[in-house]
Amino acid sequence: MVVVCGIDEAGRGPIIGPLVICGVILEAGAEQNLIDLGVKDSKLLTPLQRARIAKVLEKEYKFHRIIIPPAEIDDAVEKNDGLNLNWLEAKKATEIINELAPDKVIIDCPSPNIKAYTSYIHEGVEKKQVSLVCVHHADRDFPVVGAASILAKVERDRIIEELKKKIKVDFGSGYVADPKTKAFVEKYWNKFPEIFRHSWAPYKAIASSGKQKGLGEFKE
Question: What is the per-residue pLDDT across 30-72, written as a single tens digit (0 to 9) for each?
Fold first, then answer.
């Protein structure tokens, strides 16, 4: 029986917290089980729906999640380790494939250059005969990728809620478009540096402004 793996991520864009990448495997032809469960692109589900489905997925399906902290994301974005964000995702997807060893992989591709992205992953997989399908919007079109998107999203949301409890401040969604997040970054950018993505332009702008202000106050 052919084993298929779907891979997707959650948290690519926010300024706070990790990026989570997940792979889920199932036997080819068993996609209807996921559809019956209500699996679809995680963005089309409510938090309660995602949580309900994730409990079943975690219990009944084999999966592998990788949590990428802000510091590792910054290293990739700033190319301190020879990567960029797309290649960092590809590297982690490769690790998931090697861990789960499926026969076929469907990946929600973040790169506009699908051919290069596919080649990058194929170079790193141990099982060279694996079939790789890298496409845009795979979480929408393939239930197994939708399942991966749900498990990634639920895990990231859990981590975000834990961060809020730890620092005792509700910073919202973690996306700069969220007014609560924006206000939090402006106020606490230098108090909780470990939770921010320092390579993001909004963080750099706020940090630069804050440092300049602090230096000016010192001179006075």
Answer: 999 999 999 999 999 999 999 999 999 999 999 999 999 999 9
Taking residue 105's Cβ as centre, other Cβ atoms within 10 Å add up to 29
Residue type, 84: N
Q: How distant is the alpha carbon of residue 99 from its chain centre?
A: 18
Is residue 134 within 8 A of residue 145, CB to CB? The reply is no
User: Which CATH code fits 3-165?
Assistant: 3.30.420.10
How far, rounded to the nearest angstrom, does the alpha carbon of residue 52 sit from its chain's CA centroid?
20
Tens digit of pLDDT for each residue in 179-199? 999 999 999 999 999 999 999
Tokens of 207: 């940090």
Question: What is the distance between the alpha carbons of residues 128 and 13, in angstroms, rounded to a whole number?
Answer: 31
**Is residue 130 classed as helix, strand or coil in its secondary structure?**
coil
| Fold designation for 169-219 | Arc Repressor Mutant, subunit A (1.10.10)
Q: Give span(s): CATH 1.10.10, the chain.
A: 169-219
- Can you tell me the distance from the alpha carbon of 166 to that of 29, in angstroms, rounded to the nearest whole number? 43
User: What are the structure tokens assigned to 40, written together?
Assistant: 């679809």
pTM over 0.90: yes
**CA–CA dist 113, 173 (Å, integer):** 30
Q: SS3 for 168?
A: coil
What is the pairing mode between strands 3-10 and 104-108?
parallel
Indicate where the chain has its CATH 3.30.420.10 domain(s). Answer: 3-165
